[in-house]
Amino acid sequence: MHASSITIPQFVQEIITHLHTHHFQAFVIGGCVRDSLLGEKPKDWDITTDATPKQIQAIFAKSYKLITLGERYGTIGIITNAAAGICVEITTFRLESSYTNSRHPSDVAYTTDLLQDLKRRDFTCNALAYNPYLPALHHPDSSAPNSPLQDGAQKVDSSAYALYHRYMPYICDGVCDYVGGLADIATRTLRCVGDANARFSEDALRILRALRFQAQLGFSIESSTQAALFANAKKLSQISAQRKQEEWSKILCAKHITSTIIGFGAVWAEVFREFAKPLVALDSSPSAQILTTLATLESINKNPSLCMDSIESIHTDSALSLRLSLWFYALDSSLEQATSSLQALGYKSRIISLCQTLLSHANLPSHQSLESTRILARDIGLDSLALVGEFIALIYGKHYATPLAKHLATIRTQKLCYNLATLALNGDDLTAIANSMDIVLQGREIGRLLRTLLDEVICSRVPNAKDTLCARAKELIQASLN
Q: GO molecular function: any one (predicted)?
C-alpha cells in the first residue's frame, strides 16, 4: 500500500490545477484515495478545497457545466465529460455541526483548515486526503528537485507552501492522514472518526454505509464502532426508503456479504421489519438455507459468469432482481411479504414484478416439456423465463435447470412461436378474413381468436404458417356464428 498507487486522471488534475492557480488548496478525498490504496480502480473522484461554493462556481462556470443541487451543503458538481456521465464533486472544507433527523446537518460552516474537515468525516479509511504535489513542499526552496515553487511551475504557486505547511506532520507521500486511516486500511479495519456513537447519532445512514463498506471491502468493524452501530440501529427508521434501498442494493452485489448479514441480524430487522424474528435469529443460529444463499451470492458477485446465462453486469434490473429474490427465498418469504418489503423500500415496479415472477416460479419442476416451456414463455415472456432458469439453477444447481435451458435455446434457435408477436397471423389479418365473410369482429373477439390460434400453434395442433392459420381462423369464426 503506497501513495504511488494513486493515479489521478488528467481531468481531475486539471481541476486541482485550476484551484491552485486561484490560490486555493485542493485534495482528492475519500473513497477514491481509499480504493486506490487498496489497488482498486475508483468509480468516482471527489475533491475537497478551501474555496467556497460561490468561489468554485466563479472559477469553473465559464469552462464547465456545473451542478449546484448540493450547494447548501458545500458541494458543486463539475461535468467534465457529459457523454460519459463523468461528474467530479468539489466540496468546501466544513466544520463539525449539529444534525437534524439523524441525517442532515442543521447548518453548514466552512473552514480553511483541512484537518477540521477530516475530523467530521464518517470512517477513518474515508478521511484521507491526497495531493500529488505535496511531497515537494517539504523543500520550499526553488532549488529543490521538482519543487512546485520553481519559476514557471504549473501545479502549485508560492502561496501553496503557506497553505499546506500546517499539514506536514500528518503527510506521508502526499497523503494527509490526521485520523489514522492509513493504519486502518493496512489492517482492513473499519473505524469511525472520533466518537462512534456521535457519528451514528448524527447520521444514521452511516450504519448502513458501515455494513456496505464491510461487504464491499472485506473490512472488519472495530469493536467500539460495532457497539455504537447496534446502539443506534433504531434510528434507521428516520432514514428515507430510497437511501436504505440504495445501500441494500449495493450490499447484495458485494463480495463479502456473509459477514455483513450474519451477526448483524438485529440491524437488518430494522430495515426488513416483516422479517424481524428470523433476522434476529441470524445472530445466534443462522439456518443452512441462509448460509447457502449467502455463499451463492458471494460466488456470483465475485464471478458473474457463474450464472448460466452469464448476466455480466450486476447493476441491471434482472441481476438485482435475481439477488433480491434469492434473499427473500432464503428468508422463506411469502410472495405477499416480499412484495410488501420491496414496496416499503421504494423499489421500482419493474424490479418488484421481476421478483414476483421469480419467487412464484421457485418450485418450477425440473422436467419441462418443450410445449410447457413455450406456454410459460407465453405467460411471462422469454427473457423472464430465462431469468427463472437462472434462479432455480442457483437454488437447486445447474443440473436442475438444464432441461429448461435446452428448451429455451430451441425456441430461440428455431424461432418457434410462443407469443402473439411471433404468431404468423395478426389482428389486421383476422379483420380482413372477417370482412371477406361479411362479418364485423370487435376488438375483444379478435383478441380471443388470436389467443386461441396461439394456443393451437404452441400445442402443435396447427403449424405457424399464415395460410394454415387463415383457414383455421375462418373455421373458428364460422363456428362462433353457429
A: metal ion binding
CATH 1.50.10.10 fits 196-357, yes or no: no
Residue among 345, 420, 350, 437 nearest 382 (CA): 420
Cell of 39: 489497488
Q: pTM for this one?
A: 0.86
Longest dimension (CA), the chain: 105
Q: Is the pLDDT of residue 394 over 80?
A: yes
Torsion angle of C-alpha atoms 329, 331, 335, 340, degrees rounded to 10: -130
> What CATH number belongs to 3-139+156-172?
3.30.460.10
Tell me, letter by letter, the H, E, C secondary structure of the chain: CCHHHCCCCHHHHHHHHHHHHCCCCEEEECHHHHHHHCCCCCCCCEEEECCCHHHHHHHHCCCCEEECCCHHHCEEEEEEECCCCEEEEEEECECCCCEECCCEECCCCECCCHHHHHHCCCEHHHCEEECCCHHHHHCCCCCCCCCCCCCCCCCCCCHHHHHHHHHHHHEECCEEECCCHHHHHHCCEECECCCHHHHHHHCCHHHHHHHHHHHHHCCEECHHHHHHHHHCHHHHHHCCHHHHHHHHHHHHCCCCHHHHHCCCHHHHCCCCHHHHHHHHHCCCCCCHHHHHHHHHHHHHHHCHHHCCCCCCCCCCHHHHHHHHHHHHHHCCCCHHHHHHHHHHCCCCHHHHHHHHHHHHCCCCCCCCCHHHHHHHHHHHCHHHHHHHHHHHHHHHCHHHHHHHHHHHHHHHHCCCCCCHHHCCCCHHHHHHHHHHCCCCCCHHHHHHHHHHHHHHHHCCCCCCCHHHHHHHHHHHHHHHHC
Q: Are strands 220-221 and 189-190 parallel, antiparallel or unpaired?
A: parallel
pLDDT at residue 129 tops 60: yes
User: To 10 degrees, the CA torsion angle through 231, 233, 239, 244?
Assistant: 140
* Tens-place pLDDT, residues 90-122: 999 998 766 666 556 667 899 999 999 999 999
Percentage of the residues of the chain whose pLDDT score is greater than 70: 88
Closest CA to 328 of 274, 265, 263, 366: 274
Q: How confident is the model at residue 468 (pLDDT cuts 50, 70, 90)?
A: very high
